[in-house]
Design goal:
Radius of gyration: 40 Å
Number of strands: 2
Number of helices: 53
Shape: globular
Distance between the termini: 72 Å
Largest sheet: 2 strands, antiparallel
Strand content: under 5%
Length: 1026
Amino acid sequence: MEAAERYVRTWVASPRDKEIEDTVSGIADGQLKLVHVVKALGEYLTSEEDDLRNKGVEFLALVVDKCPPESFNLQSVKVLVAFFTSKLEDTETIIPALKGILAITRIPTLNPITLLTSVQRELLFSMIFANVKMQSLVQVQRHTVFCIFDSLVALHRNVLKNMGDRFLSGYIALADGEKDPRNLMITFTIARVLAIEFDISSKFEDIFNITFCYFPITFRQPLNDPYGITADDLKNTLRLCLSASPLFGNLAVPLFLDKVNAGSPATKRDTLQTLATCLPVYGPRVATNSARKLWSSLKLEIFQPTDPETEEEALNTTQVLIKTIYASEAIDADIDGLAKEVCEECLQILKEPEKSQAKPAIRVLCALTSTTASVSRYTLSHAVPHLTKLFVDPDEIPNRGQSCRGDFLLPIQGRSVGHFGHRLKAQSSLRPAIDGLSALVTTSGLLDDQEIGFVVQNVNEVIASQQDDLLGASDAALDLLKIISIKTPSHITQMTFPLLFSALPDQAPAREDFEGREKYRTVLSALSRLCAHPDLFETLVVRLSDPEPSAAYVHALLSTLADVLSRKVENGDVDVSKYLDRLVPRCSTSLCTEHLRLREAQGVIAQLVSLVTQSLSVQRQEKFAAALFSAYLKGEIAPLAVGDLSLPENSHFVPFDVPSSPESQTNLVSLFSEAVRTPVDDEGTFLVRLLNWSIRHAKTTMQRECAWHIISAIVNKHASGEKWYLSPARSPDQQYKISERSLTPHFRRFGMTRSPTPLIQMRDVVPSQHGDGYERCGSIFDVVTYHSQISRSLLVRNHPQALPFVSRLFELFGDIEVEWDAARAIGQIGTADKVLTKRNHAVIKILHSQKYASSILPRIIEGIQNSTEQSRQTTHLVALAALIKAIPRLAYAHEMPILMPLLIRGLSLPDPTLRAGVIDTLLSAAQADEEAGPKTAEEGSFVAEHAVSLTKIMLQNSMIIEMPDARVRVGALKYLAILPKIVRYDILHPQKATVLRELAKVLDDPKRLVRKEAVDARTNWFTYSG
């Protein structure tokens, strides 16, 4: 008892949560009882001072709210309810009393209201209804009242039902006039329950009035709203409330019609959606009585739509209206009423199919066929004969396209297939006929195998046509055949493939035969689109890999296989792995016999091998990689060329044998680089050997890059723990003394030096002597590029040596021969890599790009701001321009106020690629501002501070005289187009005339895409106003 008094006195003097928690803890532990708390509060509960009396009741309400349920019994509940009810008469204690009542209604283990006598319940509700004046309460207090009734409706519904109209009248009076969205969400929910589960026959008009008055919802969510209530939340909750009872029907429909006829497009769409929800509940009688008025309003939105979205909602509501009226219709007899009138009206319009209303009429007929079975049969029986007559009438040839645009022709598929197939031969009806055939084919079970074969036969004739005006239709025809290839590939194999393969030449057309070259490319494109099915792809592999075409032709054939195989891998097709034994040996044999010398073809073959190996299990990948390593490192090529693909006896495969290997074999390192698993016993020794070969003996960029891909994959997968080849002394810039400035610029740039010069400090290196006394060595660019590859392979796995490797590139700043290469490499390290991917089983850690940006970006910014030498500032600027394009936007978005002036300086760099990257970065930030909304852009956009400078420099970059690179000109014009959307008019108003005048000059640019962007930018500036 003394503890309770102490807690009460302390809390009254200085309200804190601690006293409440201590009191509740004492009650839960049995040290205190509720009666002790009430006695301790005695003098405050009866005090004549309003503040003390209010605090006394509030303390008790807070304790009741937090007490565990087992602390209450029947007697205590009755006493507490009676006490809080009596305090409702006191205007000073009504708020804490309501809190106390709310706490009691939420006790889960008891039904406190049901424990009361009927007299006590009547007293409780009469006191709430009599003393709670909602207009005088603030939102939080009104929210407490609504929460009380929400709890009562949820937990004590039967008690409220027994009260009947007395409860309904009291609640309606309380809820009337509420405006706060948080409270409306509760009132709408309560009203829906009342309408569904209570007898509201005498009060439905009142309930309807206190809910429909909010329709339509025009609420706009405030910025940074902590409650998160959106307009859609209110709309959906109100819609459920309005559709809760059929008694609302006669009251709601006339009001809905007013909103549809006089509202804005948004209001119309909201009303149509609400109608579609409510009509099935209101029932057939209400729908039938209002049918003609509803159709009159819906027809206006369909035949004269304000926008496509409203038209679609009107069609959907029409369907719901028809379904509601004819819900019980189950006979095939002639239909009377709205469906008949609508059908006849649309058919009357279709007597003149060239008129603009023909398309909406067809859409309405299609909508009718998707309602009830009886309405669908009626519509088909009247529409199909009419449209068929139009379709075959010679006088209606120009309008055949309109007459065959109707999915309701599906039930007469036999005649439809014949009509569509016949009309494929006429250009005016070609595309609609293809659409009709697509609808027939995609409907499951509609066409039999013979009819599908007839479709393929007719579509093949379209593809075989070489008329220029049928090219667009040929694409649609291929899409149709692609659908058929998935369902019944046998028709494609038997009928379409002979047509396409016969159009392929045995040898590549002459270079000057443009028509022949375009023809075979078109055929290969068609095969690429059709052959995803396993059976079709197998046929494609056999047919395209059998002949031995010229090198110029083979690239196109292999690219077709690669395109199809790439899609199959993306789709997860299980048949891809079997081509390890069918396609890969054939490719390997062709390469090893030096048949394919074209480097591009070798690259495509490498892509094929990569796609196949990616789909293998780990065990098969390791087996294949082991065979590949044996072939390249030991010359054991036989396992890769099996069966009838075996190699000649005198063939030798020595791609890494320096200097005896021919270039045709050294180019095959591209195939080697696609091994997913790397089974090497000593990766360090192997890396040294491969690095030496790539820097000193590789003859082409492709050879070097493929070798580096192998090295980066091995480093990425085997870099865990301490590795001697990852020590700072073994970094490429140390092994290849690229910072050695005693050499002439020519030798450093092109990688040739006298033998005595110690450019390479690496064990097991064999010099490559040339006849002129020079030794071949990698150029500066080669070594820096290789260094960036290794750094990236470490970075993606968050290896601790990644950043030290990158730091070595910063040390090269100031060397005029290498600094820009090093700066670009810093940015390239953060780019995505086609080798280091999850599909290739690379070790990739999440957020590695963000970590890289957070480490390197501040260092670059500091270098720009603090460097005293102009050349070093420019070099850091190059690094910034390269890095900013490579990392995610969120990684640097918080630095944009600092980066903006630096990026503007980057727009003056001489490298067009760097400029294009900077513009892409600025454009991304501007688009984020635009998406954030005009208010955000006007109040705090950092772009506004630099808007004038950005405008001037973007104009310079959009002129072909200043910037020959079209990519930069397009990007600059896109940025100019978005500036008026994110910057206030008063800031850029002085620039408007200049911008319009200069953009007029860009309209004469020789590039069409540049001219298009110039038109868009000039339009935005022309309409730019305050």
